[in-house]
Amino acid sequence: MTQARTTVGIAGAGIMGRLLALRLQHAGYQVTLFDRDPIECGSAAAYTAAGMLAPYTELESAESLIYELGQRSLSLWPDIVAQLDAPEVFHSGGSLAVAHGQDAADLEHFNQLLARKLPGEPGIAFLDRQGLAELEPELAPQFGNATFLAAESWVYTDTLMAALADTLQANGALWHSQCEVSELQAKLIVSANGRHHFDWVADCRGLGAAEDLPGLRGVRGEVIEVYAPEVSISRMVRLMHPRYRLYLVPRANHHYLLGATQIESDDTSEISVRSALELLSALYAIHPAFAEARIVATRTNCRPALLDNQPLVRLEEGVLQVNGLYRHGYLLAPAMAERAQQLLDATQSSVKQAI
């Protein structure tokens, strides 16, 4: 007689919910997802994010835990992509940190931080103008030097979210889309589609879990997508500045996503004039040909963050909670999914031994 698979109901199908579902499904669990959005699009922060996998860059402002989890995620992404059969979603060209002359001290401070925290790290190279020209010729006229972080990568977010959905459903996952979860407790998820019973329940709703997770808050982010056929930059770029850090992430066919803002607010209304001006002026400073770029879209969203800005994974009162990925969703989600599965496996093993 075939033993029934352990069932897991997952509330929330953003990047965290989908990667957790993929990992649990691969480990033999039967997964069911619940999400308030349609499967192919929605309001999740995952659809706004640039998809940066940049643990080295985050050392400047984040705790060492973020770097460690990010490094683990970088090692997990190739296997994730292999499961999806969608190699075009993952890009591993590395990133460049640059600064204009008046902000050179900020880049030097960043370089000193890297040297102190990661002494002898082979994946870090400090480039002069000639070295920069060899990697990204179109950046060399604007910048006299740069820091190259070879291991940093990025993903095409929309393509990845779609590939995850296709793979999960093809492998037997059930999906309740456009279905708000009204109650969540051990072994039970209550939604607009009724009461659903599982062996385990996971909460990956991000800000949707605010009522069940004290201290959870939204941190607003704003991004602009442009089409710039006269620009050919193949790597991520971080522009150092005393007030903000601008990131530029390449997309297909001369499209680029740029952002920098980090506002303590749960407001998801349209981008502000101030943010748009700062982003676009910094974009022009990276490459003058961006002056003729076309603005394709502006997007805003709020990332879920806890009071200490650290991610959370815990099993409490029968509910597996994974939340607080802040502005590191794509960077942290694979490692957090791994930790969540390990916690679930260990707890399930203990329960079986007790029985």
From TrEMBL:
Catalytic reaction list: a D-alpha-amino acid + O2 + H2O = a 2-oxocarboxylate + H2O2 + NH4(+)
One Pfam family in the UniProt entry: DAO
Cofactor(s) it depends on: FAD
Keyword set includes Metal-binding: no
Record key words, sorted: FAD, Flavoprotein, Oxidoreductase, Thiamine biosynthesis
FAD dependent oxidoreductase domain: residues covered: 8-340
Enzyme class: oxidoreductase
NCBIfam families: thiamin_ThiO (TIGR02352)
Family recorded in the similarity comment: Belongs to the DAMOX/DASOX family.
Protein name per the record: D-amino-acid oxidase
Gene source species: Halioglobus japonicus
Lineage: Bacteria, Pseudomonadati, Pseudomonadota, Gammaproteobacteria, Cellvibrionales
